[in-house]
Automatic annotation (TrEMBL), chains A, B:
InterPro entries found in the cross-reference section: ScpB_csome_segregation (IPR005234), WH-like_DNA-bd_sf (IPR036388), WH_DNA-bd_sf (IPR036390)
KW Cytoplasm (keyword) present: yes
Source organism superkingdom: Bacteria
Keywords assigned: Cell cycle, Cell division, Chromosome partition, Cytoplasm
GO biological process entries: cell division; chromosome separation
Region (Disordered): 179-217
Any single Pfam family the record assigns to this protein: SMC_ScpB
Keyword match Cytoplasm: yes
Organism classification: Bacteria, Pseudomonadati, Pseudomonadota, Alphaproteobacteria, Rhodobacterales
Protein name: Segregation and condensation protein B
SUPFAM superfamilies: Winged helix' DNA-binding domain
TrEMBL record, chain C:
Protein name: Segregation and condensation protein A
Taxonomic path: Bacteria, Pseudomonadati, Pseudomonadota, Alphaproteobacteria, Rhodobacterales
PANTHER family named in the record: SEGREGATION AND CONDENSATION PROTEIN A
Source species of the chain: Paracoccus isoporae
Amino acid sequence: MSEEPDFPPPPLAEQERMVEAMLFASAQPVSLRDLADRMPQGADPAEAVASLRRRYAGRGVELARVGDSFAFRTAADLSFLMQTETVETRRLSRAATETLAIIAYHQPVTRAEIEEIRGVATSRGTLDQLIEQGWVRIGRRRMTPGRPVTFVVTEGFLDHFGLESARDLPGLSELRAAGLLDSRPPGEMSVPLVREGDEDDNGDDTRPGDLFGEEDD
Amino acid sequence: MSEEPDFPPPPLAEQERMVEAMLFASAQPVSLRDLADRMPQGADPAEAVASLRRRYAGRGVELARVGDSFAFRTAADLSFLMQTETVETRRLSRAATETLAIIAYHQPVTRAEIEEIRGVATSRGTLDQLIEQGWVRIGRRRMTPGRPVTFVVTEGFLDHFGLESARDLPGLSELRAAGLLDSRPPGEMSVPLVREGDEDDNGDDTRPGDLFGEEDD
Amino acid sequence: MTDKVTPLRPRHRTPPAPLPLEVATAVEERRAEEALIVDVDGYEGPLDLLLTLARTQKVDLMQVSILQLAEQYLGFVEEARQLRIELAADYLVMAAWLAFLKSRLLLPPDPEEDGPSAEDLAAHLAFQLERLDAMRKAAARLMGRDRLGQSRFLRGMPEQIARRRSVTFEVGLIDLMRAYARLKTRDEFRPYAFDRKNVFTMEQALERVRGLIGFAGEWTALSEFLPDGWGSGERGRSATAATFAATLELAREGKLEIRQDATFAPITLRRKPGAE
C-alpha cells in the first residue's frame, strides 16, 4: 500500500520545464530514474520526457534517447554549423609569453630590442608562432641602420586579452600597486639567478627548452 | 558595391533553428557577429534570436542576453533540481565583493577612486582575484594626469550575475538619482587615506613606452 | 562619549600564528615588523569603523551628526590607547583629522580662511559614509542574485565549435603582465656581481700614489696619477675614485696636499713640503 503524497505533483507543463532544465545542465545523459529521484514526489518523468521530445521535434536541438537515458543533441542536418574539428588548447610557452608581453608593451619593437630585454636570443619559432596565432604582425621598418623590421600587436591580440588598446596595459608601478606583481616572482625562489662567474646568465631563461618555445608545463 | 548573394537567405524559421543549435552547443555566450559569421549569407541572426527568445520565455531553459551576446541558461526558479551541477565558487572576501560592486557601479573607475570610496588602500590580491575570476578587466586609461589605468566589468561578470548589461545593475538609477555615483573631486575634501609603501607610485613612469630603456642606461 | 550611544569597544586581534622555521629570515623580519601594528579587529579601515559608529546613532545616515561621530571616534581611539592597543597608522591619521574637524565645527568660522568650510568637510564625510554604505548594500544585492553555477546553469554537454585554428593557446592578461613584470624586475633580484677585471682598488692606488708622490714637488693633476689604460670609461671612473680616495688617505697622513681651484676644476696635488 503506497502512501499518498502530501502534495499533488506539479502540473505536466511544470514537470516538462524541470526535465528540460535537468537535461540541459547535465554533463551526461540522464535516465528516467535519475530524473524521478530529483523531481517532486508523484512526478512522471516518462510522460514529461515524451512531451518534451514532441516539443523539440524538428527544432535546431533534439531530445535524443541514448540507451536508457536522454540528452539534447544538435539536429543532424545542422551539424555543418558545428564543424567538429578538434581544437587543441595549449599553454603558451614562457618564451612566447615574454616575447608577446614585450611586443605589447614596447611596440613597435625590433627583434634586437626584444632580445635585449629578454637577455636571450629569440628563436624564429617563437615569433612565427605569435604571428600564426594572429596576435603579432610585422609593423613598419625602423629608420635606423639596417632598417630592421618591427613587430606590433594586432586587433586579434586586443580581442583575446580584452583590451581596448595596448596603451591601456598597466605599467610596472601600477602592476606592483595592484598586487599583480609579486615582490618575488613565484617559482624562482629556489632558482639561483646568477651563479658565480657567469654574469651573463639570465636565470632559467637559458634552458634550451625555453629558447625553442617548447616548455609547455 | 555589395555583391548580391547567390542564394536567398534561408527562411526565418530555419535561421531560428540554426541559432538555437549554435547557442545550445556553446557553454559561453555567443555574439551576434559570431552567429552571423557561421550562418549563410544574408541571414539576420538578431531577428532569429529575438524570435527564439520569445519561444523560450518561461521554459525550463531561457535565452539570456549577456552584453552583446546570447546564451541559454536554466531558469533560476529550478535551481533546487540542480544540486549535482552546483559549482563551489571560491568565497570572495568582503573587500573583493565591495571592490567588485564599486567597479560595476562606477565603471570605468581607477584604483585611486576605489580606494577613495572604500577609505582604505586596496590590498594585494583583491583586483588580481577579480581579474583572474574573469569578472573585471582593464579599461581605457583615464585622460587625467598620470593617465591611470581604469577597471571595468566583463561579459563574464554579466553572465555570472544574470545581467543583460551593466545598465541593468540593481538599484542603479536610485543610486544615481541620490547622487551616490557622482564622482566628486577627491583630494582636499576627502578623509585622509594612508597608503602602504607606494609613495614612489608616480604616474609618469608607468606609461608602458617609458619603461623601455629606462633601466638600461 | 555620549550616553545614548552604545559604545563600540576596541579589541585585540589574535596574534599571528608562529612561522615555520624554514621560512626565510627576511620574511620573518618583515612579519615581525608588521606584527607590531595591531589592527582593530573586524574593521576594514577607519571609514568602516566610522560607518559602524554612525549606525549606533540609530538615525538615517543622511541625518548623522558628524560632530557626535567625531566624538565617538575619538572616544574609541582613546579607549584603545588605555587598553594599550596600538592602532594602525591610518586610524590615527583619521583621529587627527576628526579632531581638527571637530574643533573647526565648534569654533566660529574664520573669514580669512580659504578652502572648504567645516560644514563642507562634514557634509563630504557624510556623503562618503552614505556612499560606502550604498556600495556595501549593492555588493550584498549583487551576491544575492541568481548566480551562474548556483541558481542558473549552463549547458552541461557543450559541443565543441570549431575555430579555423586547430591550436588555441591558453594565456591570459594576468600571465602576460606577470611575464613582463618578471622580466622587468629580474635585475632587482640579481645578486650584485663584483667586476674585478675593471676595478682599480684603493690598495693598488695607495701603492701607486705612494710611489709617485716623491716626484711631485709641483702641483700635478690627479689624472696624471692614473695607471696606463685606465684613463677613460668604466675603468677610468674606478681608477679616478680609487686614486682620489688614496690621495685623501695620504693627505690625512700628512704626506701630500690637495688643491682644487673651483668647483669641478681639476684636482691637483703635490708632495707636502717638508715630507720626505
